Amino acid sequence: MLKRVLGLFSNDLAIDLGTANTLIYVRDKGIILNEPSVVAIRHAYGGGMNNKTVLAVGQEAKRMLGRTPGNIQAIRPMKDGVIADFTITEVMLKYFIRKVQENRFLRPSPRIIISVPCGSTQVERRAIRESAAGAGAREVYLIEEPMAVAIGANLPVADPTGSMVVDIGGGTTEVGILSLGGMVYSTSLRVAGDTFDEAIINYIRRQHGVLIGEATAERVKKAIASGWSKSDIREIEIKGRDIAEGMSRAITLSSHEIYEAISDPLDSIVQATKQALEQTPPELSADIGDKGMVVAGGGALMRDMDRRLTEDTGLPVVIADDPLTCVARGCGKALEEMDTLGDVFANE
Amino acid sequence: MIPEYEEPIAKSNTSGSRLRRARESLGLSAEDVAGELRLSVSQIKALEQDDYTDLPGATYVRGYLRSYARLVKVDEDSVLPPLQPEPLARSMNAIARPVQRQARSSDRWVRLMSYSLGLLLIALVVVWWRSQGGFDFEKELLAELPSLTVEKGDSDRTVADSSPRQEATIRITAATAEAETKQSPSRLTEPDGPAANMRTTTTTADQPNALPQRERVTPPAVLTRASRESQAALASQSGRIVLTFSQSSWAEIRDASNERLLHQSFHPGREVAVEGTPPFSVFLGNAGGVRMEYNGETFDITPHQTGLYARFVVPGN
């Protein structure tokens, strides 16, 4: 009862709880928070592991990744699209929710829509639900990411026509084929932005004998990585620790090298889309062949990613507007109209 | 020459025509572009003619234009049509099952409820305040009413000078109460404060026929038949009204000072005697069922009767 009353004073939220970034859409306001899903924890001296305090959350905590002293730990509580550290996720969500709620006097208790990977298990979904409830949510609705992407990209999800979406996020790649407001086929692949970073780190260590951190790998990926072998060549100079000498050393990387480094994860993404097309009923397959697929998520920003998918699948590929916020916008749109929509929400 | 190239000059700066010119300058045919983008030639031509009616939707059109622009090396943003967000509910309504509707603070009924609750709260507070302040309120009325009598009868207001007549009860009380009100404004906050009590005692003690304080609250001069005989002797200067009820009726009698002597409904068979300072203003709710005597003589009500009730002054002019 109290939660219902408090609910009158809080705005409903839609959260894209991503592996890399968390976006929060506030009802009637839009996306007002976009921060990395990182929490920095400080362990008090002598207090053991129980004596923890939150040092920073979001952007500030991300700058600490890989640069922390012994008593500080920068944690990414989400891994592969699902919760890896339940407590830290709850702390992070609580922090973000408090940040977007204007009402400081009453403890907010909003209704929350959270996107979940379509391949997540019941346990993982329950963990997300519990974590949002622990962060103060009155009610939690889950929406599968491909559905959120399709809604966010303004696709005709409710029409009797097939739409195909590919969301290449930080932790997972989601492929979904939708028609009549429901999912005809969906698959989730734990290969995405983070896998590219790891592949780049491994490649540079193997080929150049230099160790780099995740942050540098991400910088390289954003600057020169390309998804297509025939892209223009670009170069970047980075510094890392030489494995043999232990000294800092500068190396120059070309986009071709990076393409080679990430070709394995890229291939698995392409394979997943091909597999989805193979599983599609013929009528929907014809619709998709006519219109093409929509790509969203951070992976859609990779240079010539659409060309690669076009070449390999033979379909027109469309990059959604503002692909990074597509899921959050879709959740937000579902939130704005949740009083009339019920079927788009996922069950546990 | 292919017909679609013959476009009017006015339309030459649209995004479609710019893409077409860029394509031509690169020496590509529409078929080449269609092959690269895996679109059909008719779709490419529709894009070049800015005719989006047969294309699947805004998101796809923007995507196609973006890919096309990148292929022919034109700035992507310059060829994109403005975004027109479509409401989702319109299309989803047909198939979706609604989630239970949630009340929000902006809803009309929620707002109405809170306003009426607020008003109710204010009303309750007023009622409570009145009930708390009721004692003082009555006292003030009491202090005001008899003061009129005092002004009329005597010019001097002090208790000591008032003559020891039958009305003394009322007057003394009045003067005491008034003196209290004037001398101690704090009486409201401390109605039973020791100072107030002490003063009252001294004032009343000054007058010759010291009357007990208990009589401060004026008893209405309504007398039953049993006590009427004993009181009759005192009535030399005052008027006396006897009402006999044959039907039930409401009766209200006020004396010269407008003080209410009678204010009650009576059952048939009752007889009531009222004494006080004339002239009396009398109101009878069911005048047909009441017989009235004034100072021992029968008083004819009928001339004053208007419909059921009667309102008149005795003694008349």
Explain what this protein looks like in three dimensions.
Chain A is α+β, with helices and mostly antiparallel strands and 348 residues long. Chain A has eleven helices and 18 strands. Chain A starts with a helix and ends in a 12-residue tail after the last helix. Chain B is of the alpha+beta class and 317 residues long. Chain B is 42% helix and 15% strand. Chain B has helices spanning 15-25, 30-37, 41-48, 58-71, 76-79, 88-92, 108-132, 134-153, 168-183, 194-206, 225-232, and strands at residues 222-223, 239-245, 249-254, 260-266, 271-276, 280-284, 290-294, 297-299, 305-306, 309-314. In chain B, the strands form two sheets. Chain B has a five-stranded antiparallel sheet. In chain B, a hairpin with a 2-residue loop joins strand 7 (290-294) and strand 8 (297-299). Chain B is rod-shaped and about 130 Å long.
List its traits.
heterodimer, A: 348 residues, alpha+beta, five-stranded mixed β-sheet, 18 strands, flat, B: 317 residues, 11 helices, disordered N terminus
| Average pLDDT reading of chain A | 88
- Would you identify the regions of chain B where 5 or more consecutive residues have pLDDT less than 50? 1-10, 147-170, 184-208, 210-221, 232-236
Strand order of the largest sheet of chain A: 3-2-1-9-10
N- and C-termini, Cα separation of chain B: 122 Å
Q: Which strand-content bin applies to the residues of chain B?
A: 15-25%
Rounded Rg of chain A: 21 Å
Rg of chain B, rounded, reads 48 Å
The average pLDDT score of chain B comes to 69
Instruction: Detail the poorly predicted runs of chain A.
Output: none
Number of helices of chain A: 11
For the largest beta-sheet of chain B, the strand count, sense and barrel status come to:
5 strands, antiparallel
